[in-house]
């Protein structure tokens, strides 16, 4: 029903006009019409028709239907576009319903390049939209256009932008190679695509990364890391670009996948021995002779729930170390006071050493600390020697890059090897009750030290044995 409000002073005739109500000086005409347009087209009410015309209402001419281009969705193109979050999609839908589709959908040869979400919403709600056709030479160029258009989206994270930038770099290299190969083929009078060698090679990859990073305002380091991941699993780039996984999570995912493969392979090979025992470190009280160990060196768990292990480690080291022997423990700072107290229950404090982190720093968010080193605690079997006979030591060593390929908490080799070689001789016995990925037993195998250790996880223990066996074969 259309409700028309007409001022009383307009001179509108009351009789037979369909007037229903008078409120102050305004007449309200209630008519059984859905729209003003239908009301005006009804010639049986000439008075209303004439009044509406004189009041500025115009009859809209009926539109002749025009065939409109309906973009086709290409699934390969659509896969290049990061999906919206549910919140973003709801916001876009509300905006389109309220204001309409103001920006044209971009198409190439009838295929949609930009506006997939808008097209879906418009179709569901019957909203009109416009299209804009662009000219591009081929599908690869169309993909490049989509990716370059995507990287400017405000809702993409830094990791997503870096992944898209990497794809843009790869796409440009591919297009450039194809064009040069086509020219080379044409210059030889042949339509065949030839491989281009020598001076026609692309500029160096580091320079490509730098130029791409600068052009799109992303980190060169992130592009380099994504390129390294793509060599192992090209699909991981798509997952990062779509926001399914962060760059950090992607690196850990591939490392863990590699570690699990090593564990599975090691378990299948049934490698035994190498001084690595599966189970709790308590079994070392039985396995080791008293006063037989030259050096305990280990990297226990850092969690608060693992603090009781340091008390057990202190008791084990005090009982099994030779007189004058040392126990080196790498640990974190968060519970350092408790770690020292527990080890000091059985051992004598000797010195505080440290390992400078190779990657600069790590952030301890809840303490708002930028951590640049790890403590390396040096305890001695009671009574501690008053005049040590070992070689001179430095109490701050530089760590090499932490090796996470064998264990998610793997550490660098250099800091452990430095103290092992300075505090023991070939043939001496070194013990690590927390073998993990096998860093300590591998060093011992390479430097001719004897080794005994324990690891709770059977798969990790098997992988560590395989690592040590491989080091021995390589050493010859």
What's the multimeric state? single chain
Q: How many discrete domains?
A: 4
Tell me the number of strands. 16
How much helix, percentage-wise, in residues?
40-55%
CATH C-level class of the largest domain is Alpha Beta
Describe the structure.
This protein has 476 residues and is α/β, with parallel strands linked by helices. The protein is 42% helix and 17% strand. It has helices at 36-41, 46-54, 75-78, 86-99, 116-125, 139-150, 158-187, 205-216, 220-232, 235-241, 247-269, 284-287, 308-320, 336-343, 414-423, 439-447, 458-475; strands at 2-7, 19-23, 26-31, 105-108, 111-114, 131-133, 276-278, 293-298, 321-330, 348-356, 362-364, 369-371, 373-380, 396-398, 429-432, 450-455. The protein is elongated, with a radius of gyration of 38 Å.
């Amino acid at each position: 029903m259309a409700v028309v409000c007409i001022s009383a002073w307009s001179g509108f005739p009351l009789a037979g006009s369909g007037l229903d109500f008078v409120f102050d000086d305004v007449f309200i005409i209630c008519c059984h019409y859905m729209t003003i347009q239908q009301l005006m087209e009804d010639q049986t009410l000439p008075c209303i028709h004439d009044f509406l015309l004189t009041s500025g209402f115009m009859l809209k001419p009926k539109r002749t239907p025009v065939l409109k281009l309906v973009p086709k969705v290409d699934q390969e193109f659509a896969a290049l576009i990061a999906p919206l979050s549910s919140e973003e999609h709801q916001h876009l839908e509300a905006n389109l319903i309220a204001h309409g589709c103001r920006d044209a959908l971009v198409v190439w040869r009838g295929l949609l390049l930009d506006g997939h979400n808008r097209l879906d919403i418009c179709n569901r709600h019957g909203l009109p939209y416009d299209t804009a056709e662009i000219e591009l030479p081929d599908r690869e160029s169309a993909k490049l256009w989509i990716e370059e258009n995507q990287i400017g989206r405000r809702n993409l994270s830094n990791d997503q932008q870096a992944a898209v930038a990497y794809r843009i770099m790869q796409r440009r290299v591919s297009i450039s190679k194809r064009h040069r190969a086509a020219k080379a083929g044409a210059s030889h009078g042949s339509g065949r695509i030839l491989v281009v060698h020598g001076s026609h090679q692309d500029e160096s990859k580091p320079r490509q990364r730098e130029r791409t990073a600068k052009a799109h305002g992303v980190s060169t380091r992130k592009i380099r890391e994504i390129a390294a991941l793509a060599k192992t699993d090209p699909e991981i780039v798509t997952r990062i670009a779509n926001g399914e996984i962060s760059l950090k999570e992607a690196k850990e995912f591939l490392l863990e996948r590699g570690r699990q493969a090593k564990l599975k392979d090691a378990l299948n090979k049934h490698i035994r021995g190498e001084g690595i025992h599966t189970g709790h470190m308590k079994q070392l009280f039985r396995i080791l002779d008293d006063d037989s160990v030259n050096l305990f060196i280990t990297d226990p768990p850092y969690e608060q729930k693992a603090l009781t292990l340091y008390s057990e480690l202190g008791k084990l080291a005090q009982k099994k170390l030779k007189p004058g022997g040392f126990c080196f423990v790498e640990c974190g700072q968060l519970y350092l006071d408790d770690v020292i107290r527990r080890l000091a229950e059985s051992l004598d404090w000797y010195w505080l050493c440290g390992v400078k982190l190779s990657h600069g720093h790590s952030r301890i968010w809840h303490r708002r600390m930028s951590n640049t080193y790890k403590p390396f605690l040096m305890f001695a079997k009671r009574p501690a020697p008053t005049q040590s006979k070992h070689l001179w030591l430095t109490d701050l060593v530089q760590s090499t890059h932490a090796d996470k390929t064998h264990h998610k908490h793997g550490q660098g080799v250099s800091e452990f090897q430095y103290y092992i070689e300075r505090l023991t001789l070939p043939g001496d016995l070194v013990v690590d009750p927390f073998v993990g990925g096998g860093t300590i037993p591998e060093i011992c195998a390479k430097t001719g030290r004897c080794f005994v250790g324990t690891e709770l996880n059977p798969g990790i223990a098997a992988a560590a044995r395989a690592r040590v066996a491989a080091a021995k074969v390589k050493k010859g």
